[in-house]
Design brief:
The structure holds two protein chains of two kinds. By secondary structure, chain A is of the alpha+beta class. Chain A has helices spanning 9-15, 19-27, 44-76, 89-100, 119-132, 134-141, 144-152, 155-168, 281-318, 330-369, 374-413, 415-418, 424-432, 441-453, 456-466, 474-496, 500-529, 532-557, 560-567, and strands at residues 79-81, 84-86, 172-175, 191-195, 200-211, 217-223, 234-240, 246-251, 262-275, 320-321, 324-325. In chain A, β4 (191-195) and β5 form a beta hairpin. Chain B is built from eight helices and twelve strands. Chain B has a ten-stranded mixed sheet with strand order 9-8-7-10-6-1-4-5-12-11, sandwiched between helices. In chain B, strands 2-3 form a two-stranded antiparallel sheet. Classes of the chains: A alpha+beta, B alpha/beta.
Chain lengths: 568, 291
């Protein structure tokens, strides 16, 4: 199998985005750790070279080991043995390889044994691992929990837990949802009570649909404030598996991502430590954790789509019908082209979002060490605002595209694709969860619509509009400007009606219109750095224009009274 | 128990697993320019055996030893990325044209220079020559025991090592005193990947010759971090007798090079009766296609 980093030049393309220099220089505080740690970068060029070399390791393990094991992991799946989750044998081999290669704790600070990589590098690695096996990517990607501990826990907890990830290769889990608290996490009833006698918090209750539920380190959302019923009564805890105070009641039998154990857990007087302050569990810490996880699903979606695209392309080139390879038929090459532009578009949106996250999180970390100057504070706020609306936009668009791409990839295979003989059916099953977990598409719309109503999307679009372009790309901008005018007008039309329900009703359409324009610009800007993106941008924008027009038409003809018919 | 001192013999070879049409020159020699240079696969497996001992016995050191042109320093770096502690490159124009006899002579001198040591691991054979001679010849020249075809180190203690050997028709477990030279078979486990921190730590490791040719200036870095200096040994460093080196020390002569093309000459149609299938199995066993 090839190296999944080296065989995909687009990963390096995004890693070498001009903004990375600022991100990495900020993150490394001008490379001040170079004399303290023998693996710290000497300068920006050295850092980028290290990123590449490490991503090559990820690509190697993904191509040689994880992808090779994906089919058997899907078939075998995890099981419960003596109240412990036993991974499929391939899963253990995969994890061990990544652990030995030092790939747990990529973005943690060096003082805890991490690599201090920018978030964007972790996202790249996540995309690569997801292409090999999306279910496994969950287990590996949950090292993100360490990031939450690093961000919000006190020093003692950090010192206790973070080296578990970097030195021992600990696995993580986020225990949030319950039978009656899924999308609506405010309804969490799981209890944490402070036990004065032993001077510790004890957790009691049931958690359901917990990915990698038997992890070494779990973050648990629990109600600490008696007689509360909303988000303000919830706090976040960290639980160490070695307490053995949790029963694994069952592992769900799922449609896809079968290698990733989804558990139902019963906590009985499980000792745990409070992260940060009481009452901030959901409103601050879990929100941050979920945003990171949504970016992770973006990476997972792109990874699955990349795998599906490759399978579809290969099959279309090899399969002959009516005397020629099927890729030569317009009906087939169009499907492939649509897959390709969606893949490229979602990837560009993924890395744009991850750069925004990198910028504001890095400033946040710096702000803990010294006060930021006015310009820095302004930048931090700007990127935080952008990250807040781009993250749900990305999660929504990438997961939906991922499903569409997997659907078309099977279609290109014809009957063969429906059989278990080819990997594309697994990709299709794995894709399906992406638009559901970490907040459904419908919930992402609720978060992303703020980008429409506060004009956060529009102001960014206006910034893209000002970028200088090569003459041969200008006609694309003209189309995008027309689309933007149309979008502004349509948003105004809906908002003017001052009808919340109607705004909710059209919200997804409005968000998608903004998304189409944003991706269109990102691809045009990509074409400034690599000509291959020009054709992709052209195809994407042509389709996006038509797509937006359909939405405009529907929005304009749907009135409040129509909701009555639709609501039933 | 104090750790072990291990030497791993490794060779940089043209990647003959991915042979294209330009792999061979008209005169029948390997066209090295057309093939990427890689870590000989069985040598990598030998390195893994050494690293596993290091994992389990703190204080163990793993030293790589390779011989080749200047660019073979890459082999040392690859070893460092995976957990080796240091490495030596035997390099000198006078070694050019060495066959297995001359090579094992040079290697045996280098090993003696690295004494004392407990175990020397090497791959069974290199994919560019498939001779499987260098390891055993070196052991003979040094005068230590050798165990070939190692698949697994079964156990190890202060003075002896027990090894499972993979043979044509099964396995056998043998024990030897140390020091010992062990050659590792293809059936041994794959080598681990490079380690992220190690690759960042050692990527600037270079030999003096490489530093002289390098366009970037990391001289001060190499002064501050001595572990970045890959040591080079020449004929003089090894006090080698030049008559035993290079072409003059290599009695091997290539008599003829022929192209071998595999073609299917005949086919056989079988029925689905048990006897017919049994006959086929017998036939395949007899001509050693299987078994």
């Amino acid at each position: 199998m090839p190296n999944f980093y080296n065989d995909n030049k687009h990963l390096k393309f995004h890693l070498s985005h001009p903004m990375m220099k600022k991100i990495i220089t900020l993150r490394e505080r001008d490379f001040k750790e170079k004399d303290e740690y023998d693996y710290a970068p000497l300068d920006f060029e050295d850092a980028i070279d290290s990123y590449e070399k490490v991503l090559e390791i990820v690509g190697d393990i993904s191509g040689e080991i994880i992808a090779e094991n994906a089919a058997s992991v899907d078939k075998e799946g995890p099981s419960i043995v003596n109240n412990e989750v036993k991974y499929a044998s391939g899963t253990s081999v995969n994890y061990e390889a990544l652990k030995k290669a030092g790939l747990i704790g990529l973005s943690l600070p060096r003082k805890f044994g991490g690599l201090n990589f920018a978030n964007t590098a972790f996202v790249l690695a996540n995309e690569i691992v997801s292409r090999a096996d999306a279910g496994f990517a969950n287990i590996w990607g949950l090292q993100d929990c360490a990031e939450t501990i690093n961000e919000f826990a006190d020093e003692a907890i950090k010192e206790e837990f973070l080296p578990k990830f970097t030195r021992e290769g600990a696995t993580g889990a986020m225990d949030l949802t319950e039978p009656d608290a899924g999308s609506d996490l405010q309804a969490v009833q799981f209890k944490a009570t402070y036990d004065k006698a032993t001077d510790q918090w004890l957790l009691n209750g049931v958690k359901r649909f917990i990915t990698n539920g038997d992890a070494d380190v779990s973050l648990v959302l629990a109600r600490t404030e008696e007689d509360t019923i909303d988000a303000r009564g919830l706090s976040l805890f960290v639980y160490d598996r070695s307490h053995k105070a949790v029963t694994i009641r069952r592992i769900e039998n799922k449609l896809g991502i079968k290698g990733s154990p989804t558990c139902e857990l019963v906590f009985k007087n499980a000792p745990a430590k409070l992260i940060g302050s009481r009452k901030f569990g959901l409103i601050k810490y879990v929100m941050s954790l979920m945003n990171a996880a949504r970016l992770g699903i973006g990476a997972q979606s792109v990874g699955i789509a990349e795998a599906a695209y490759r399978e579809a392309l290969k099959y279309a080139q090899e399969r002959s019908q009516f005397g020629k390879p099927i890729i030569q038929f317009p009906a087939v090459y169009e499907m492939l082209s649509v897959i390709k532009v969606k893949l490229f578009g979602m990837r560009s949106l993924l890395y744009e979002t991850s750069r925004f996250v990198d910028m504001y999180k890095t400033y946040q970390r710096i702000a803990e060490e010294r006060s930021l100057d006015a310009e820095e504070r302004q930048e931090m706020k700007k990127y935080q605002r952008l990250a807040d609306v781009y993250t749900p936009l990305l999660k929504m668009i990438s997961s939906e595209y991922c499903n569409q791409v997997a659907y078309d990839a099977i279609q290109i295979h014809g009957g063969t694709g429906y059989m278990k003989d080819f990997p594309v059916e697994r990709l299709y099953r794995d894709a399906r969860i992406t638009s559901i977990y970490e907040g459904t598409t419908q919930l992402q719309v609720i978060a992303a619509i703020k980008g429409v109503t506060t004009e956060a999307f529009l102001s960014r679009i206006k910034e893209y509009e000002k970028e200088s372009l090569r003459p041969e790309l200008v006609f694309l901008r003209k189309t995008l400007i027309k689309m933007t005018e149309e979008y502004e007008q349509t948003v105004q039309n809906v908002i003017e009606l001052k009808d919340e329900e109607l705004l909710d009703f059209h919200a997804r359409r409005l968000v998608e219109m903004a998304g189409n324009i944003i991706i269109g610009y990102l691809l045009v800007l990509d074409a400034m750095r690599d000509e291959e993106y020009q054709a992709v941008a052209e195809v994407f924008i042509k389709r996006a224009e038509a797509n937006n027009k359909e939405r405009v038409y529907y929005i304009n003809v749907t009135e409040q009274r129509d909701l009555g018919i639709i609501r039933q | 128990m104090k750790g072990f001192k291990i030497i791993v013999l490794a060779k940089q070879v043209p990647d003959t697993r991915n042979v294209g049409k330009d792999a061979m020159k008209a005169n029948g020699t390997v066209n090295r320019a057309a093939l990427p240079a890689v870590f000989n696969p069985e040598d990598l497996k030998a390195l893994e055996q050494a690293l596993r001992i290091k994992d389990n016995y703190p204080g163990t050191t793993v030293t790589l030893l390779t011989m080749g042109p200047g660019r073979a320093a890459e082999i040392i770096r690859e070893g460092l990325y995976r957990g080796a502690d240091d490495g030596y490159l035997i390099t000198d124009r006078k070694f050019a044209g060495s066959d297995t006899l001359a090579t094992s002579y040079a290697i045996s001198l280098a090993i003696k220079k690295l004494a004392p040591y407990d175990i020397i691991f090497g791959g069974r054979q290199a994919i560019d020559g498939d001779t499987a001679q260098v390891g055993p010849q070196a052991a003979e020249k040094i005068g230590i025991p050798q165990i070939t075809y190692c698949e697994e180190v079964v156990s190890i203690n202060k003075n002896s090592i027990r090894i499972k050997r993979r043979l044509d028709r099964g396995v056998e477990t043998v024990e030897s005193t140390m020091p010992v030279l062990v050659t590792v078979h293809d059936s041994a486990p794959e080598c681990r990947s490079r380690n992220a921190k190690m690759i960042m730590k050692y990527k600037h490791a270079q030999t003096v010759s490489e530093m002289q040719e390098s366009t970037t200036d990391y001289i001060s870095l190499h002064d501050a971090r001595p572990y970045l200096n890959i040591k080079e040994w020449t004929v003089d460093d090894l006090n080698a007798d030049e008559a035993w080196l290079g072409l003059s020390g290599s009695p091997t002569k290539v008599k003829k090079v022929t192209n071998v093309v595999f073609t299917a000459k005949e086919s056989k149609i079988l029925g689905d009766k048990d006897e017919e299938i049994e006959d086929l199995i017998k036939e395949l066993l007899e001509n050693h296609t299987i078994g």
